[in-house]
Structures are given as structure tokens and as C-alpha cells.
Automatic annotation (TrEMBL):
UniProt KW Hydrolase keyword: yes
Family label: Belongs to the glucosamine/galactosamine-6-phosphate isomerase family. NagB subfamily.
Activity regulation as described: Allosterically activated by N-acetylglucosamine 6-phosphate (GlcNAc6P).
PANTHER family: GLUCOSAMINE-6-PHOSPHATE ISOMERASE (PTHR11280)
GO cellular component: cytoplasm
The protein's annotated pathway: Amino-sugar metabolism; N-acetylneuraminate degradation; D-fructose 6-phosphate from N-acetylneuraminate: step 5/5
Provenance organism: Pseudoalteromonas ruthenica
Active site: D67 (proton acceptor), N136 (for ring-opening step), H138 (proton acceptor), E143 (for ring-opening step)
Protein function: Catalyzes the reversible isomerization-deamination of glucosamine 6-phosphate (GlcN6P) to form fructose 6-phosphate (Fru6P) and ammonium ion.
UniProt-listed NCBIfam families: nagB, PRK00443.1-4
Gene it is expressed from: nagB
Top-level taxonomy: Bacteria, Pseudomonadati, Pseudomonadota, Gammaproteobacteria, Alteromonadales
Protein name, UniProt field: Glucosamine-6-phosphate deaminase
Site label Part of the allosteric site, positions: S146, R153, K155, T156
């Protein structure tokens, strides 16, 4: 695990974006693993700017997102497909048909999970996977107690995650309690993993991720087993490290 500690969220986003830029310059037909949530937004902004300046192209890229709420289709404003279109895909030269987000409206979610895994495999695997981290140490929607070798599957969200994400839903809006998420094993198969975290409220999760022990109680600690995992954090998120 490589730990990069930077001053603030702006520097974290720039550093993370540069890793994606380097990957795209080295291999324009890369397969990218992408995340939602508030943390990657500034990184996506960086990538949009670089794309619009002609510095990088996504025209040969394939992408796979980590997760999606089960029960929301892609036109729902809180769906992760909608988020990705708004925050990234609509502003870059990516072919939408090569962008993949788990189908939140799948009639047969279990079959859809197997198909998602098969598509990742058919694309040659993920070259670089972006991650955020939950306060409880989750990556994707792999909540504490998730199997460390798990594959894409349906997961129930914990109360902590539902409460953390309630800020995105209005009071009378249905908030899903189920998701489809890549498994920890799926994430560990990516050739490179880049986890971003900023702010003091992530400090405990970062300490558990970096200093261990390796445990399903902190799913992100599984990244200790990865050969090329980079943890990019600001000083606040690093504040509990020994
Ligand atoms: C999102 C995802 C989640 C988030 C995590 C942190 O696709 O998989 O694991 O990365 O919940 O969310 P933020 O960045 O909003 O703190």
C-alpha cells in the first residue's frame, strides 16, 4: 500500500486525477473502474477539464462503476447512473454504450450480477479502479462483514450507510436499502486501485484501512493485500494515523 498525504481535498483530487491521466496516456483504450459519492466529484471535474483542453481522450475507454441502488432505474436523480452522466459522462468524449453501471432495475438481479462480472472479464479486467470509503470502512457497498473474496452481488446497506446517504434524498422520497455492488474480490482484481478520502470524519476508517488488522469488519483493509493500491488522503483524513 502506498500512502500519499496531501494538504487538502483540492490536492487530493488533483493527485488522483493525475493517476487517471497517466493511465489514459499510457493506454488510451483503458478499462476504468469508477465510483460515485461526494469524494470523486472534484477528480471528475479535473478529468473533464483535461478532456476539454484536448489533453486526454476517453474515446477508446470502457468503464465499470462500483455499485448502484437496487430499485432505482437510471433516470432516477438519485441513481448512480444518473450521477455518472451528470458528473462525468455527459461532459467527456466517452461512448456511453461502453459505460457500465450495475442495473438497478434488473428483473433478475442475481443474473445481472453474474453478467456484470462476465462483462468486466470480457473487457480484459479493470486497469485502474477509483474508490471512496465509508465512515464504516466500506468500499463500493461492501459493508462491514462482507467476504474478502466476494464478487458482484446484491448487498443490504447498513443503517450507518443509509443515514450517511439520506442527505441526497428528500424526506418523502423512497431511499433504497439494497444495492448491487462489485465484491471485494472484484475490486482486488483491478490492476491498480486508487482510494481517495478527505476530512476528519474519514480518519478512523483510514486508520483501520492502513494500520489494520486485515478484517472483514473494515472491508477497505483488504487493500493491504493488493500489489498496487494507492491511498490518497488529506491531512484531516490522516489525522489518526500513528
Ligand atoms: C460510491 C461508493 C461508496 C462511496 C463511499 C464514500 O460508488 O461505492 O463506497 O465511495 O460511501 O462516499 P462519499 O465520497 O460521499 O463520502
Amino acid at each position: 500500500m502506498q500512502i500519499v498525504i496531501l494538504k487538502d481535498a483540492t490536492e487530493v483530487a488533483r493527485y488522483g486525477a493525475d493517476l487517471f491521466v497517466a493511465q489514459l496516456k499510457k493506454q488510451p483504450a483503458s478499462t476504468l473502474g469508477l465510483a460515485t459519492g461526494s469524494t470523486p466529484v472534484a477528480l471528475y471535474q479535473n478529468l473533464i477539464e483535461k478532456n476539454q483542453q484536448g489533453d486526454i481522450s476517453f474515446s477508446q475507454v470502457t468503464s465499470f462503476n462500483l455499485d448502484e441502488y437496487l430499485g432505482l432505474d437510471g433516470s432516477h436523480p438519485q441513481s448512480y447512473r444518473f450521477f455518472m452522466n451528470e458528473q462525468l459522462f455527459d461532459h467527456i468524449d466517452i461512448a456511453k454504450e461502453r459505460t457500465h453501471v450495475p442495473p438497478g432495475d434488473a428483473q433478475d438481479p442475481i443474473a445481472a450480477c453474474q453478467e456484470y462480472e462476465a462483462r468486466i472479464l470480457a473487457a480484459g479486467g479493470i486497469d485502474i479502479q477509483l474508490l471512496g470509503i465509508g465512515r464504516n470502512g466500506h468500499i463500493g457497498f461492501n459493508e462491514p462483514s462482507s467476504g474478502l473474496t466476494s464478487r458482484t452481488r446484491v448487498k443490504t446497506l447498513t443503517k450507518a450507510t443509509i443515514d450517511d446517504n439520506a442527505r441526497f434524498f428528500s424526506e418523502d422520497e423512497y431511499q433504497p436499502h439494497l444495492s448491487i455492488t462489485m465484491g471485494i474480490g472484484t475490486i482486488l482484481d483491478a490492476k491498480k486501485v486508487v482510494l481517495l478520502a478527505t476530512g476528519e470524519n474519514k480518519a478512523a476508517a483510514i486508520k483501520a484501512t492502513v494500520e489494520g488488522p486485515l478484517t472483514a469488519s473494515c472491508p477497505a483493509s483488504a487493500l493491504q493485500m493488493h500489489r498496487d493500491a494507492v491511498i490518497v488522503i488529506d491531512e484531516a483524513a490522516a489525522s489518526e494515523l500513528a
